[in-house]
Amino acid sequence: MLLIKDATIWTMEGTNYERASILIEERKIKKIGENIDVPANTKIIDATGKIVMPGCIDAHCHLGMWEDAIGFEGADGNEMTDPVTPHLRGIDAINPLDRNFEEAREGGITTVATGPGSANVLGGQFAAIKTYGDRIDHMIVKEPLAQKCAFGENPKRVYNGKKQTPMTRMATAAILRDTLYKAKRYKEKLEASKDDLSKKPPYDMKLESLLPVLRREIPLKAHAHRADDIFTAIRIKKEFNVKMTLEHCTEGHLIVDELKEEGLSAIVGPSFGERPKVELKNTTFETPGILNNAGIKVAIMTDHPVIPVQYLPMCAAFATKAGMKEEEALKAITIYPAEILEIDDRVGSIKEGKDADLVIWDGHPFDLQTRVSYTIIDGKIVYEQN
């Protein structure tokens, strides 16, 4: 057992504690309170004067897909040979021994949604994983988590360079529609055949991988920066009655009323750094706050390695500086991403029965001078400040 003693606790569950303790048993949070009976042989962390929060969650990154300081050998996030690759699984390319995982833990990041990039119209399957472990199979929270699709400049740029479709936004949308329609027909034939093998359609790995999307078991994770691309994504979502999360949503603040009416969640970022392409010209840290203030559920992301994953709290701090409410910014890197990713039954808040994924800070997490004292994943101390 492990006890975190006498801490300020921000639960993200509506109840905070000025001075309380957390008892952890067998990977789970067993009890939270001001007076906890401590079993014998319990390891105790004295967190007096420190802040305990749920582990931070990055709802969109590519951790382990583009490895640190390697270059091409470690770049496994974009299979730029075919615009339709939904059958690819991110977990087959993630290297948990990449140094960035250690840096994630040092920064208080305990769970990430990671997967393929945005070169292809359909890029493959994301997974939600913990940031501690040496074998990806033992780190998975949910897989498949989502199916990556991309609109806008990236597919155009990649395939224009190859002189093949899609070279326009029209073609990107048409390819996505065509593939989803084929997957829908494949699904209908499978269902109609029931147990009659002679009537089943020939196995198609690409179409098979889209069945969870059509069954609304997982969403399309739609890379869309510009307002018109966001609306194209929503149009296709409605046509096929699938679930969708809006990724990046860079111009979301320009169409906030429309997005509120649609009722979708937004995973916003990366908002720090230069604007290297046209569709990023309206990038601003004001976007998360504007959307959130309108009642849209927002998660803040790094898009690692665009912004190193350990700086996720810094991105939330900048969003606060640009007008987002502080409590909402904290939720945008904890409980809101957990809810958007549909893994909030396990992570995202401090609640009895949830995974013991916790971060102990020596100051406010939005203060750039603050350091992580401890990171705990599944009840195990995985980082301790020297």
Describe it.
It contains eleven helices and 16 strands. By secondary structure, it is an alpha/beta fold. It has two domains: 92 residues, Urease, subunit C, domain 1 (Roll); 292 residues, Alpha-Beta Barrel (TIM Barrel), CATH 3.20.20. Strands 1, 2, 3, 4, 5, 14, 15 and 16 form an eight-stranded mixed sheet that branches. α1 links the parallel β6 and β7. The mean pLDDT is 97.
The gyration radius over C-alpha positions equals 21 Å
- Which CATH class of the largest domain? Alpha Beta
Helix content: 25-40%
Query: Which fold name fills CATH's third level, the topology of the largest domain?
Result: TIM Barrel
- Structural class of the secondary elements? alpha/beta
Name of the CATH homologous superfamily of the largest domain:
Metal-dependent hydrolases
Question: Which terms would index this structure?
Answer:
Urease, subunit C, domain 1, TIM Barrel, 2 domains, 8-stranded mixed sheet, 26% helix, 25% strand
Short description:
With 386 residues, this protein is an alpha/beta fold. Helix content is 26%, strand content 25%. The strands form two sheets. Strands 1, 2, 3, 4, 5, 14, 15 and 16 form an eight-stranded mixed β-sheet that branches.
How would the blueprint of this fold be written?
Blueprint: E1 2-10, E2 16-25, E3 28-33, E4 43-46, E5 51-54, E6 56-61, H1 99-106, E7 109-114, E8 122-130, E9 140-150, H2 153-160, H3 169-193, H4 205-209, H5 211-214, E10 220-224, H6 227-240, E11 244-248, H7 256-262, E12 266-268, H8 286-293, E13 298-300, H9 312-321, H10 326-331, H11 335-340, E14 358-361, E15 372-377, E16 380-384
Parallel strand pairs: 1-4, 1-5, 6-7, 9-10, 10-11, 11-12, 12-13
Antiparallel strand pairs: 1-2, 2-3, 5-14, 7-8, 8-9, 14-15, 15-16
Helix pairs in contact: 3-6
